[in-house]
C-alpha cells in the first residue's frame, strides 16, 4: 500500500481562518514538510496541536533534492502533509515538483482547502470575477517585466499578480505603460490581517500612491483589456509593431503572436507581412 500526499492550505493572515482539518492533519501525518519550520511551529502553537510525525523543511532551495526523499516516504506508505507559509502549496509556493513526482508514481494526492490570497483579492477588487487568470510574480528585471506584461496586453480576463512591496511602484508604473494609465486595478495589502487595505483606482494613480512606499504582503488585481473588436491595421503597421517587440527582447514568434492578438487578426497575416517586408528590404 502506498501512502498519500496531502496539500494543506494555511492562513494568509488571521490564524482563525485555518480549516479544522488542518489541525487534524498536522496531528496525524507521518511526515510534515514545511516551507519554514519556524513558522510551522508558531502555527501549531496557535492551533494547540503537536505533530506526531517527523517535521522537515521543504522550500525553494532544497525542493529538488528533497522531493525524491518524500516520494520514497510516500511509496513506503507514509501520510505526508505539505504546508507552505501561507495559502495553498504549489501556487507560487513549493509543491509542484512533489505533486508531479507523486502523480508519476501513481501515489494519491489530496488537499485540505484553505485561504487563498488570489481568490480573496479577486473577490475584494470590485473588478469582474467571472473570468480571470493568475500570473504569479513578474520578473525582477525591468525589460523582462515589460516583456511579460506585453504578452498579456490584449488579455480580456481579469489579471491577478503577486508582488513584493519594494517593487510594487515599478510594477504598477510598468503596467500603466503597457496596459494604459486608465486601466482599473486594485492593490490588496495585508489581506485578513489587522492593517488590511484595498486600494482601487486607475493604474497611473496607484503607481503614484505606491511610489510613497508600501509595506506588507501584496496582491494586485488588474482589469482585463477592453473588447474593442478587430482593428483596421495595415501590413506596414503590423510589421512596425513586431519590430518594436523584437527590439524590446521578444523572439519573433512570440512578437507575431502578440501583435496578432492586439490587432485581432490571424497570426498568419502578421507572419506574411513580416516575411514580405523582409523580402522587399533584401
How does this structure look, described?
With 282 residues, the chain is α/β, with parallel strands linked by helices. Helix content is 43%, strand content 18%. A hairpin with a 7-residue loop joins strand 8 and strand 9. Helix 9 crosses helix 11. The longest helix has 15 residues.
Classify the secondary structure makeup into a structural class: alpha/beta
User: How is the main sheet built?
Assistant: 5 strands, parallel
What's the total helix number?
11
- Percent of residues in β-strands: 15-25%
The amount of helix comes to: 40-55%
Mean pLDDT: 93
Order of strands, widest sheet: 3-2-4-1-5
What's the structural blueprint in terms of helices and strands?
Layout: E1 4-8, H1 20-28, E2 31-34, H2 37-47, E3 54-57, H3 63-75, E4 79-83, H4 96-104, E5 108-112, H5 117-124, E6 132-137, H6 142-151, E7 158-163, H7 168-179, E8 184-189, E9 197-202, H8 203-210, E10 218-222, H9 235-247, H10 252-263, H11 267-281
Parallel strand pairs: 1-4, 1-5, 2-3, 2-4, 6-7
Antiparallel strand pairs: 7-10, 8-9, 8-10
Helix pairs in contact: 3-4, 6-7, 7-8, 9-10, 9-11, 10-11
Short description:
This protein is an alpha/beta fold and 282 residues long.
Descriptive keywords:
single chain, 282 residues, five-stranded parallel sheet, five-stranded mixed sheet, 11 helices, 43% helix
Amino acid at each position: 500500500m502506498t501512502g498519500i500526499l496531502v496539500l494543506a492550505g494555511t492562513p494568509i493572515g488571521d490564524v482563525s481562518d485555518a480549516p479544522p482539518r488542518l489541525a487534524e492533519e498536522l496531528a496525524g501525518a507521518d511526515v510534515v514538510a514545511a516551507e519554514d519550520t519556524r513558522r510551522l511551529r508558531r502555527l501549531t502553537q496557535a492551533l494547540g496541536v503537536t505533530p506526531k510525525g517527523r517535521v522537515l523543511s521543504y522550500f525553494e532551495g532544497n525542493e529538488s533534492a528533497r522531493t525524491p526523499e518524500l516520494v520514497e516516504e510516500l511509496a513506503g506508505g507514509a501520510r505526508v502533509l505539505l504546508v507552505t507559509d501561507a495559502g495553498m502549496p504549489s501556487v507560487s509556493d513549493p509543491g509542484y515538483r512533489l505533486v508531479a513526482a507523486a502523480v508519476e508514481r501513481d501515489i494519491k494526492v489530496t488537499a485540505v482547502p484553505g485561504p487563498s490570497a488570489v481568490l480573496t483579492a479577486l473577490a475584494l477588487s470590485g473588478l469582474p470575477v467571472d473570468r480571470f487568470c493568475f500570473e504569479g510574480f513578474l520578473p525582477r528585471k525591468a525589460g523582462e517585466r515589460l516583456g511579460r506584461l506585453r504578452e498579456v496586453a490584449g488579455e480580456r480576463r481579469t489579471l491577478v499578480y503577486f508582488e513584493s512591496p519594494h517593487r510594487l511602484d515599478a510594477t504598477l508604473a510598468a503596467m500603466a505603460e503597457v496596459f494604459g494609465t486608465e486601466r482599473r486595478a486594485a492593490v490588496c495589502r495585508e489581506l485578513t490581517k489587522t492593517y488590511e487595505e484595498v486600494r482601487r483606482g486607475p493604474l497611473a494613480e496607484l503607481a503614484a500612491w505606491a511610489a510613497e512606499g508600501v509595506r506588507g504582503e501584496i496582491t494586485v488585481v488588474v482589469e482585463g483589456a477592453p473588447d474593442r473588436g478587430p482593428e483596421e491595421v495595415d501590413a506596414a503597421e503590423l510589421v512596425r509593431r513586431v519590430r518594436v517587440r523584437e527590439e524590446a527582447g521578444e523572439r519573433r514568434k512570440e512578437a507575431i503572436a502578440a501583435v496578432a492578438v492586439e490587432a485581432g487578426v490571424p497570426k498568419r497575416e502578421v507572419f506574411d507581412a513580416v516575411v514580405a517586408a523582409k523580402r522587399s528590404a533584401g
